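Changelog note: in this version the structure field was regenerated for every chain. One regenerated record is shown below for reference.
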Amino acid sequence: MIIPSPRELTPRPGTLPVGPELRLSAGPGAEQAAGLLAEYLGLPDTPAWEGLRLRLELTPEDPAAPEHSALGPQGYLLDIRPEGATLSAPAEAGLLSGIQTLRQLLPPEVLDPAGPAVDGSYWPCLEIRDSPRLPWRGFMLDVVRHFFPLSYLLELVDELALLKFNVLQLHLTDDQGWRFEVDGLPRLTEVGAWRAETQVGPPGSGLADGTPHGGYYTRAELRELVAFAARRGITVVPEIEMPGHVRAALAAYPEYGNHPEHPLPVWTQRGISESILSVDDKTLDFCRQILDTVVQVFPSRHVHIGGEECPTVQWEQSEAARERAQELGLEHPAQLRGWFLGRMADHLAGHGRRTVCWDETGHASGEPPAGMVLGAWREPVHGVLAVGRGHQVVMGPHRSTYLDYPQRDHPHEPPGQPGGIVSFDDVLRFDPLAADLQPGGLPVADPAQDERPGVLGVQGSLWTEYVATPAHARYLLYPRLCAVAEIAWRPGPHDRDSLLERAATHRRRIAALLSAGGTHTPRMIGTMEG
């Protein structure tokens, strides 16, 4: 009942008891992973030489040892026998994946922190040889349109780790709010973190709830989240929008916009504000100052700077922007978008970071700077074209991976993104390597070789214009998040009925995780229907 399904699983006769008689030990370099497993299971993590043993060890890949070759840095071997078990991997990332497999092999009720201890439970004897298809297995959460407390983010991280995701992209800024502290720019949170009300009706209706909404995370809270996630093998990738989707920033500091003489409030509507950053030197320095705080808080090698849906009418009307475009030899002010993103990418490169932005093929003038990782969010073919231009790509087309769309056509379905349904089947049918568009499929990118184009990974997303609570978020996530995990970990074809059966078991795991005072009671956590 494992999600995602392992590449190779060989059952064996017998079981291994899990309880006080099980002694956990760790080889060199495996101590932190062993500590996490001990915490999950309630076992001592000190070495012991009597009783049944569970051993974690790092085993660097050796061509002469075929059992450990070709696993890659995120693969693992799990060998469970009646007398003990061994979890081995070439790197810690693989050990952490194997730990989540061990958790899933236990009865779901054992995951309840306040429930019965693991004593009396059993692991089935088996051998698993497993490794992921894609190095980036991500999920994006928008905490701007609706703010979510740190407690929910910590719970979400543990849920993502259980499904072997390894990236949480946190959408921290947008027109409707600013969600983190920046050194030397206090008004970003004093003003930008709060809006007067939230649109509740369809576009153009003028309907709003009349209730102020906001919130932000302190640097200490974000560092806590980063550390909590890293211990579970998840990298938190921050997303800071620019040069568009910045109305909240401009509400705090209007001098960095194109019309500083007209201060504006934080936007209360859905959709896209025409207010964008100016292109003068002081605005570039403002953005660099923001990114300097970002890299202090988030150690992630990748930093996302948005870049999508940037209306350029203000640049076209601005004499200063037109002069800047002319100085740069650009044919049109709209091309300043790529130039702007390039300046920020250069700044991040100076910090040893790599820039990610949303792909805007066919929707923006010019090309994104070379070397950027692109998020293909509109259509899969845009990812194919981006790889052809030399980029590494994270695939996440909205009609296959956006989980804010309703998951079924049903009168009791909660509100979701209008415009269609994204069902469990829609997610499971999606091939991140686009074999239906590119004969043989796109190549998988190597994160250690930036110059080699290909698919770095796949990502599910939850935008929260219509999602105000953790309960609603979890309803939309499950079971579709299980399908995202499956397509990220292994190639198709995928067994739909098997995954739905496994997802039903996973529903019990999530309920157990949340039953000890989480942000959500275990009732509505997603349909299991396809």
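Spot check on this record: Residues 519-530 have pLDDT under 50 and may be disordered. Residues 496-514 form the longest helix (19 residues).
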